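TA notes, week 10

Several of you asked for a full example with nothing omitted. So below is the full record: structure tokens for the whole chain, then the designed sequence directly under it. When grading your own attempts, check the secondary structure regions first.
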């Protein structure tokens, strides 16, 4: 019996479109250890712990763009800062809807470490999260399979404007908005 499970999605949201997905996510089972798991052939996204334990054996697959990694919500992106350009996919796991640590991981991958490739949200990913995930740097989403993916896609367009600066919009609204000339009077409270 293998010491891992493979999780696959038929479709994901990528670059604001529903597309077919040919990647599988490897998750260790209880008795599985990062050092001993045999990563199967194919396009596989492995846990960070597996990459760190088997880097030398997996390096060739990563360079052929057949390997991705995923971060648990309690792991730090800095752990692979020198290897990020080797991965076709970097994923961040959201173990439950209310765990927001993945947003910080995504932000750090994009803004601090400069990762430019596919950044995928996996796990308990729902429509209500997609807009904020996009703002933090995600560009792909493996939504929960018990939900309609085409409905989830609508979550990326729920707001037409944002106030805060983020990965997707580096300037806050007040810096993006062109200010006109001052009114005839300079009494700020005159219209109240």
């Amino acid at each position: 019996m293998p010491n891992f499970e493979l999780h696959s999605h038929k479709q994901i949201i990528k670059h604001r479109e529903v597309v077919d997905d040919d990647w599988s996510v490897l998750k260790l089972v209880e008795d599985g250890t990062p050092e001993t798991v045999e990563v199967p052939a194919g396009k596989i996204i492995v846990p960070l712990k597996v990459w760190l334990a088997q880097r030398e054996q997996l390096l060739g697959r990563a360079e052929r763009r057949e390997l991705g990694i995923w971060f648990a919500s309690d792991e730090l992106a800095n752990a692979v800062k020198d290897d990020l350009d080797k991965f076709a996919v970097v994923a961040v796991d959201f173990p439950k809807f209310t765990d927001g640590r993945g947003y910080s991981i995504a932000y750090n991958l994009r803004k601090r470490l400069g990762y430019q490739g596919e950044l995928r949200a996996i796990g308990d990913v729902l429509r209500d999260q997609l807009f904020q995930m996009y703002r933090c740097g995600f560009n792909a989403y493996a939504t929960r399979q018990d939900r309609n993916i085409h409905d989830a896609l609508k979550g990326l367009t729920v707001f037409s404007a944002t106030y805060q600066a983020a990965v997707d919009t580096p300037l806050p609204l007040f810096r993006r908005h062109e200010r006109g000339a001052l009114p005839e009077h300079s009494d700020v409270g005159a219209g109240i």
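Strands lie at 4-8, 11-14, 17-20, 24-28, 44-47, 67-71, 89-94, 118-123, 140-141. Use that as a sanity check on your answer.
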